[in-house]
Amino acid sequence: DGLVVSEKVKSNNIDVKIPKSELEAEDKGAEEERPRESDSNILDISSDYPRDKHISIQRHLADLEKLADLREDERKPCPLCPEEKFKACYSHKLHRHLQNLHWKVSVEFEGYRMCICHLSCRPVKPNLAGDQTLSKMGAHYHCIICSATIVRRTDMIGHINRHVNKGETESRFITVRAPKSSYKVVKESATDVQVLPNHSTPQKTDSYFNPKMKLNRQLIFCALAVLAGERKPIECLDAFGATGIMGLQWAKHLRSSVKVTINDCNENSVTMIKENCHLNKMKVKLNIREEDNGEAVGNGEENSDTIEVTKMDANVVMHLRSFDFIHLDPFGSSVNYLDSAFRNVRNLGIVSLTSTDISSLYAKAQHVALRHYGCNIVRTEYYKELAARTVIAAVTRAAARCNKGIEVLLAVALEHFVLVVVRVLRGPTPADDSAKKVRYLIHCQWCEERVFQKEGNMVEENPYQQLPCDCHGSMPGKTAVLLGPLWSGALFNTGFLRRMLLEAVQYGLDEAQPLLKTLICEAECTTLKHFSTHSPGDENKQEECGVYIRTPNTSTESYLVHGKRKSEEVLRGAAKRQRAEHSAEHPPFYYNIHRHSIKGMNMPKLNKFLNYLSEAGYRVSRTHFDPMGVRTNAPLAQFKTVLMKYSTPTYVGAQAEGPVHLPGEIQVGEEVPASAVIKVEEAELAEDDKSGVAAAVFTESYPTHCAAD
């Protein structure tokens, strides 16, 4: 009966029992207590828990009242309030005060109540409002785990929940791993991984796992599978492993074609990666420092079921070793790791990076984009493609500093991320060619027309002449803005995308297949959607840009490296094939059909409108950046002409179907002068009866409509 409290440290399975006499001594206000020798010998991790807790942390309301019994006066002060806030009173009034103002607003955790405290424990900033305001600002809670002081009760509850999710529930300033029972096993693409309960909050967990990024992982896997088909084995690096899900999928499906290295700088994440490797029956090869301590698994034999796990900074591991495939997926921007990634990546290797700082890339935080990427951007109708070209421009500059050029294989910008996959071309000549494709963009803020600035260093007298529109001559003030520097080259490689589609079909990646088909149509700027997968007897040929080429699957002996000269010939031939895939680049940027719709008119269906533009002799396709976007080489004036011609009036007395003839009988195939389109826009604005629509054109928000399809 002498032992009333029993706390168990789960990591060591030790019961630490605290005598009742010690608790009573603590309740009477003892400032510090000497730890017993027996307890200090047993608990070498924590000095004293929970014996050094704050007086505001109690189990029962009666314990708070006992703290006021230290004085023998009839009037008793509140132990958690200063005298200037709450004067001494009788016991019945003190009971109501403690119950209503301290106990009812407390936060409960494992039988303890963290009551609100008004003492001068927390520093308060000076305020001119008076002492009463100062006392309200000084109210706070004391955390039982880390002794932090937190003002709001909701913040205190969230603070405790974060400790629980991380396993920090035992003692002050001690981090212990969460028990096995709190782990959750998630399965994706035949790969099992253990995650913590707060795996979806990257800033509050060591093992971040986002199920919404499944499509991103499938695209990266397809790119790696294509590279593994060109040469094997390849060394690939997942620089930010977290749970290790991506590296495990590489090793589990590609087997002997890849040598996977998973890296993370967090110790808890590295431990979880090792456990996930064992969960998927993979052997773990540790780095040299850990092998010296005798923690290595296996006898050092290289096989297809071995994954190397390292605990280093991502920049360090990329500086120390060379890789054929590097994937960067940090929390936020990846610009801090680009120099290290291109330093040791092998020739014709692939670097893929996922950027999740969409607030800056999508022009919601323009100052952050200028700080991170050195790029000036504004919110436009094509902001997602603008984000992809911003990232590629930063990648190009980082590669050029290492005398390397790039070839963009894939650029995807969706709701949660921007994915860029590039192939590395070593040498100063490819670096110069890539650097020349980083140019500024002239964007008209009135009609959303855009054009890349011409090459050359000479200053033009009137830069507005480069824009196809005539907004500067017909509108007052400055109408255009200079954006960039941006990547002005192609965003897709058609042949590489076709091979990625074949890999997605082979491995059953259902979510990636529709997107890859859209990307192929977008790369070729066509609306055709007929894709045929090759039969098993035709595996030795693949079509790239209409040309059938042989793949490494035909004869493995021809791709075995017999000396340095043979390997250079193979790599040089692959480089020539990749350069040949640039035959027909897609037009840059796209137009949103809702953004340029005519007021009072029903626009045609999107697929029909694509056919109308194609019949007019222009290349046209849909885009994955915007479900209502149209990628075409038609100028904006002709785009609006076709849209107006096949739109129908919304009022009842008008004709139900049929094209609307423009004034002056301008035909669809003819070039429409920009002044005619400007006059139409002025007429539309005049009908708004001075409602301020003209001023709204310059804003960065666009009207939201229902999808036409």
What's the topology here?
Layout: E1 3-9, E2 14-19, H1 20-27, H2 37-42, E3 57-58, H3 61-67, H4 91-103, E4 107-109, E5 112-114, H5 131-137, E6 141-142, E7 149-150, H6 153-166, E8 184-188, E9 191-195, H7 214-230, E10 234-238, H8 245-254, E11 258-263, H9 267-279, E12 283-286, H10 288-292, E13 306-310, H11 314-320, E14 323-328, H12 338-344, E15 345-355, H13 358-361, H14 366-373, H15 383-401, E16 404-413, E17 418-426, H16 428-435, E18 438-444, E19 450-452, H17 471-474, E20 480-487, H18 494-506, H19 512-524, E21 541-544, E22 547-550, H20 564-580, E23 591-592, E24 601-602, H21 606-615, E25 620-622, E26 629-632, H22 636-645, E27 648-649, H23 674-686, H24 693-696
Parallel strand pairs: 10-11, 10-14, 11-13, 12-13, 14-15
Antiparallel strand pairs: 1-2, 3-5, 4-5, 6-7, 8-9, 15-17, 16-17, 18-19, 18-20, 21-22, 23-26, 24-27, 25-26
Helix pairs in contact: 7-8, 7-18, 11-12, 12-15, 15-16, 18-19
Domain C2H2-type: 143-163
GO molecular function: tRNA (guanine) methyltransferase activity; tRNA binding; zinc ion binding
Protein name: tRNA (guanine(27)-N(2))-dimethyltransferase
Summarize the structure.
The protein has 709 residues and is of the alpha+beta class.
CATH class of the domain at 185-288 and 305-456 and 463-494: Alpha Beta
Poorly predicted regions are 1-51, 127-137, 171-178, 288-301, 534-567, 577-583, 653-657, 662-709
The number of distinct helices, counting runs of at least 4 residues, comes to: 24
Cα-based radius of gyration, to the nearest Å: 33 Å
**Mean pLDDT, all residues:** 76
**Which topology of the domain at 185-288 and 305-456 and 463-494 does CATH recognise?**
Rossmann fold
Q: Which sequence of strands runs across the widest sheet?
A: 12-13-11-10-14-15-17-16
Query: Looking at the structure, what is the overall shape?
Result: globular
Class of secondary structure makeup:
alpha+beta
Portion in strands: 15-25%
Q: Determine the N-to-C terminus distance.
A: 75 Å
CATH superfamily of the domain at 185-288 and 305-456 and 463-494: Vaccinia Virus protein VP39
The total beta strand count reads: 27
Q: Estimate percent helicity.
A: 25-40%
Biggest beta sheet summary:
8 strands, mixed
**CATH level-two architecture of the domain at 185-288 and 305-456 and 463-494:** 3-Layer(aba) Sandwich
